Amino acid sequence: MATKKSDSGKPAPKQSAARKPAAKKAAAAKAARKTAAAKSGAAARKTAAAKTAATKAAPKKTSAARAKAKAARPAPERVPGRKERRGIVVSDAMDKTIVVRIDVVQKHERYGKVVRRSTKLHAHDEHNTAGVGDLVRLVETRPLSATKRWRLLDVLEKAK
User: Fold this and answer.
1) How many CB atoms are closer than 10 A to CB 91?
2) d(Cα 127, Cα 131) in Å, to the nearest integer?
3) Cα–Cα distance between 106 and 113 in angstroms, integer?
4) The whole model's pTM is what?
5) How confident is the model over 19-38, as pLDDT tens digits?
6) For the domain bounded by 84-157, which CATH number is listed?
7) Residue 79 above 70 pLDDT?
8) Among candidates 66, 103, 65, 111, which has minimal Cα distance to 87?
9) Residue 139: how many CB atoms within 10 A of its CB?
């Protein structure tokens, strides 16, 4: 049997007897962890199987029962339809088009600070009734041009 040689050319020292049991203990601990993990995985699979069996055993609702449950729920607050926005006209230089600034003030979800945001929308003004500074109401519509997706509904307040 050949002996291992170290970098210096001398034979490497043999492992002491004290180190061998430590290696055996580590291997035994590793094996114990593997079996524990396998057992917990099997237990998790059993509980998942029990849950699916319980849901299959529950009686299914009939269509009449589902309709009754749906009728008992309150109606949604927002009815489907076109979006409406209120804003101030910042430009009326284009023919039949106005640019409206929509200001949104809301509390930051995490930090609670009041955050002010604004966006500019291009809106269709068929009769060129709105002027700069007017408070107007817009309604969503089909795309009218590359940037216009809103239509002037009415002028709420004329600028002074």
Assistant:
1) 13
2) 11
3) 8
4) 0.51
5) 566 677 777 777 777 776 66
6) 2.40.50.140
7) no
8) 103
9) 15
